[in-house]
Specification:
Elements (H helix, E strand, L loop, with lengths): L11 H12 L2 H79 L9
């Protein structure tokens, strides 16, 4: 019995459930599942392709950076030894020029901006 004293029908909910099950079209449901599954698979495939393309681009970028670093190291190896040999003479020449300027009374001028 419910609050009003009337007898409850135990099959009332079952009737609604049967009506709901009868309203389902299995062909339409299967078509939707296949279509949505196909979209999901296609999106997954595209995501994997984009990920692989990104990894390939990253690998190519790393190769280019490695090549540039190798070239810079080679350039520094070529320049470093001669610069180290020349720099003491450049420093000595600048000191000599400053000393000669002092002897001749020439004062260094500040550059104008």
């Amino acid at each position: 019995m419910d609050e009003n004293g009337e007898a409850l029908n135990p099959l009332a909910g079952l009737e609604e459930l049967v009506a709901l099950l009868l309203s389902i079209n299995p062909v339409e449901l299967a078509t939707k599942v296949i279509a949505e599954g196909g979209k999901t698979l296609d999106q997954g495939r595209r995501s994997v392709e984009l990920l692989l393309q990104t990894l390939e681009n990253t690998a190519e970028t790393m190769k280019n950076l490695n090549s540039a670093a190798t070239r810079i190291n080679s350039l520094l190896d070529d320049i470093e030894v001669p610069l180290r040999a020349v720099m003491p003479q450049v420093g000595f020449a600048l000191q000599t020029m400053a000393a000669m300027g002092n002897l001749m009374g020439i004062k260094p001028q500040k550059p104008t901006s």
